[in-house]
Amino acid sequence: MLRQLSADSERFKTVTFQSGLNLVVAEATAGSRSTDSRNGSGKSSMIELLHFLLGARADNKHLAARKELRQMAFTLSLDWPGLSQELSVSRSGTDVKHVTLRPTLLGQPDLSGSSRSSLFGTNEGQKVPLAEWQALIEKGLFGLTGEHPGVSGRALLSFLIRRVGDHGFNEAVRSFSRQSEAKSTPNLAYLLGLDSALASRYQDIAAKKATRDQLKKAVDDPVWGKVIGKTADLRGEIAVRKSKIDELHREIGAFRVVPQYEELKERADELSRRIQDLGTQDVIDRRNLDHLEKAVAEAVDPEVQYLEQVYGELGLILPGQALRRFEDVRAFHTAVVRNRRTYLGEEIEATRRNLEARKSERARLDTELSAVLKDLSEGGALDRLTALQKILAQEEAQLGALQHRLEVAQTVEASSREIEATRIDLVREVDTDLRERQQQISQATVLFHELASRLYGNDRPAYLSVEAGKSSLKITPKISSDVSQGINKMSIFCFDLTMAVIGHREGRAPDFLVHDSHIFDGVDDRQVTRALEAAVDITEAEGMQYIVTINEDKLAQTRSLGFDSTPYVIEPLLTDAYDEGGLFGFRFER
Questions:
Q1: Is 478 helix (H, G, I), strand (E, B) or coil?
Q2: What is the DSSP letter of 256?
Q3: Nearest-CA neighbor of 4 among 111, 90, 123?
Q4: 75-119 confidence digits (pLDDT tens)
Q5: Can the peptide bond before residue 510 be classed as cis, meaning omega within 30 degrees of 0?
Q6: What is the spatial distance between Cα 488 and Cα 481, in angstroms, rounded to a whole number?
Q7: 8 Å CB contact between 513 and 50
Q8: Phi, psi of 27 (to 5 degrees)
Q9: What whole-number distance in Å separates Cα of residue 555 and Cα of residue 528?
Q10: Could you tell me where the DSSP H helices lie in 299-381?
Q11: What is the pLDDT of residues 127-146, one digit of tens each?
Q12: What is the torsional sign of CA 558, 560, 565, 570?
């Protein structure tokens, strides 16, 4: 149970709690003006401070971080399982990331259940990180051990201590306005003894659907659609990329590093140049050979006999001396022609020998070049192998990117029937589990019905509806009526009290429940009276504590209807007195 809320300021009004019903009353003073309001008396601030001390995250906009309150250290004393004395937790706006816990637990089990011999070291208490305090709350107050997806101590406390600022009194199954049922119901299921893990799986489906919707929008976008691509196109690219990678793997697997690779490469280049030069020389020699053979054919003996015939026909007779001179000339020309043919023949033979020699040389060089090229084709230099491995790594990285895009594309293009099939399977599984837990559900339903019947009588149907919905586990408190703000608030009252009692019975929740006075907004005075009477009876029977803030005029109406509130009104009495009537002993701008 919660025992005391205090601060290290003399002006702060310490709130001391008791077992059973606790009424924190705010009243209008005799000197109040019509413009004064009890909204500034500190009722909601008390709720905020309870959350602050029970591990709520706080930023610079939080109540305790305000300039007027930042230097105050607030303290909450409460009972703790396994401890024979009260545990106190202190926290201030100057250091919201830590709390101080007291007393020292030397010789006693560690609250966290860890292997450390003690959580605290001195009688001054121990400063503990906020995250560790939250873990202690989960284990100590809610029995959360092991994995409980979707369930947290802070979320559970948000149902047991609803906050007006979060619109916690709008709906029974939500502790703040924007909370989805898929996120809230695992916590409700845990308190009611249902399978919270099954309830949390609705969040997975919701996340997949949200992802698909967002990606679908991206695909429909003309720019992002090109980035993601289509499944069919990506499969084709992946097939080509895999083929190239396989080829690189084979090439690298068969690769043989040749130590003299560069020397062999230079020799191959040299042989290639030599063979090319030989070919060029062959072309020149073949052209020369053709010219030589033509020159030989054109070299003929000179003929001078026709001169004698010509002269005879002209009636002239050449003298013998002249004829001898023609014979000498012919002999000379014959010698010249013979010598030319001899020279040309020798040149032709030399050219042919050169062609044959180069032919043999080219054949030898071709053989050597083939051997060198074979060595090069079977292996290569180490830097070539490194280059191949780098190319392979790049190709594999690109393949990975393509496969990731394919996964995204498949998610985008996944039929809604696939998500629906998963949803149907989960609904079937949850439905089966609820049938197996019908006794647990009936226990909660009967308790809710009894509470509602005390408020509205047996003629008005009231029950808890628990079913496997399409988007979440559906836990719905129902009190048959027309749409009414008052009945909605009393439905929340009955539901919260049912949830707190069932959770406490099974060790899944602490023994307290706290409501702000907004729980009675729009509620008929008769129902307020019966609600307080029901709270007295059930907290006494269950050994629990119900803390509720209430305005004096509303409480006066319950007295007129026979409810004796005297034993349940706790100190202090809050007023709307401007200077010192509120919880903090002074007013400040909120």
A1: strand
A2: E
A3: 90
A4: 999 999 988 889 999 999 889 999 999 975 443 444 444 433 344
A5: no
A6: 9
A7: no
A8: -130, 160
A9: 9
A10: 305-313, 320-378
A11: 999 999 999 999 999 999 88
A12: positive
Inter-helix orientation angle 485-505/438-456, to 10°? 140
Nearest to 164 by CA among 337, 43, 65: 43
Q: What is the CA radius of gyration of the chain?
A: 52
Report the 3 state secondary structure along 104-142.
Answer: CCCCCCCCCCCCCCCCCCCCCCEEEEHHHHHHHHHHHHH
- Give phi and psi for 497, each to the nearest 5: -65, -40
List the structure tokens of 15: 């709130």
Q: Facing residues of 129 across strands?
A: 98
Taking a C-beta distance cutoff of 8 angstroms, is the pair 59, 93 a contact?
no
Q: Which tokens go with 448?
A: 């809710």
Which residue, 475, 473, 520, 466, is CA-closest to 493? 520
Q: What is the DSSP string of 368-408?
A: HHHHHHHHHHHEE-HHHHHHHHHHHHHHHHHHHHHHHHHHH
Q: Which of 170-174, 357-361, 515-519 has the lowest mean pLDDT?
A: 357-361
Nearest to 111 by CA among 79, 81, 86: 81
Distance separating alpha carbons of residues 43 and 23, to the nearest angstrom: 11
d(CA 78, CA 59): 25
Element (H, E) at 497: helix 485-505
Nearest to 208 by CA among 471, 419, 468: 419
Reported pTM:
0.67
Nearest CA among 394, 378, 388, 395 for reference residue 254? 378
The verdict on whether omega for the bond into residue 81 sits within 30 degrees of 0, i.e. cis, is no
3-state secondary structure 530-549: HHHHHHHHHHHHHCCEEEEE
Amino acid at site 558: T
Residue carrying the six token digits 């706080």: 58
**Cα 573 to Cα 26: distance, rounded to the nearest angstrom:** 6
How many C-beta atoms surround the C-beta of residue 277 within 10 A?
12
At residue 266, what is the residue type? E
Cβ count within 10 A of residue 292: 21
Say which residues have a Cβ less than 8 Å from residue 160's Cβ, sequence separation at least 6: 496, 499, 500, 509, 510, 512, 513, 514
